[in-house]
Amino acid sequence: MKCLKAAYIREEIQIPDKVKVSLENNVLKVKGPKGEVIKDFSYAKGIRIQLNEGKIILETTFADRRKKALLYSIIAHIKNMITGTINGYRYYLKVISTHFPISVKVSGDEVQVSNLIGEKNIRRAKILPGVKVTVKGEDIVVEGSDIYNVAQTAANIESSTKIVGYDRRIFSDGIYIYKKEVIGLEQSD
């Protein structure tokens, strides 16, 4: 059976008081107390984004399944942008070393990992713009206002310590993500 197209879909996202939003040529800028996030939605053909009286309005006509999926993905992106500029995002990584002590340091826009399973070379992971990385003993904290940059930086750090050619059950050395949270919404233990 064929999926019917929706003739008209309109979704609204309320803009909180703490946030300033501007839209120019489908480039959305969200600025809040924790920073600014800019995202280009020019790839979204057939979806109209506009600002009106404290709301972001998204509209589309004759939406099939793909266009609906794109619309609701854009809504999720915008909500993540708003949450990030109000609260921010934080990822926690743990340094695991069973054989050789791993040393981790932040140098400019990269994280340097040395002495991983006794290697002499330094492994490097790129820190994306707007992301702050701090090393506290065996914990690494990655935080920022753009969830995509924070997540990619944490993934860069984790994948830079991937060990190839050894049994992962025995050589479990590396850096691993163990917790993700929205700053300010963390659970009290």
Low-confidence stretches: none
User: How far apart are the first and last residues' alpha carbons, in Å?
Assistant: 51 Å
- The largest beta-sheet arranges its strands as 11-12-7-13
What portion of residues is helical? 10-25%
The tally of strands reads 13
| Major sheet description | 4 strands, antiparallel
Radius of gyration: 21 Å
Give the SSE string: EEEEEEHEEEEEEHE
Helix count, per DSSP?
2
Class of secondary structure makeup:
alpha+beta
Number of domains: 2
At the first level of CATH, the class of the largest domain is Alpha Beta
Portion of residues in beta strands equals 35-45%
Helices and strands, with pairings:
Blueprint: E1 6-14, E2 20-24, E3 27-32, E4 35-40, E5 47-52, E6 55-63, H1 65-86, E7 89-96, E8 103-107, E9 110-114, E10 123-126, E11 131-136, E12 139-144, H2 147-160, E13 174-182
Antiparallel strand pairs: 1-6, 2-3, 3-4, 5-6, 7-12, 7-13, 8-9, 9-10, 11-12
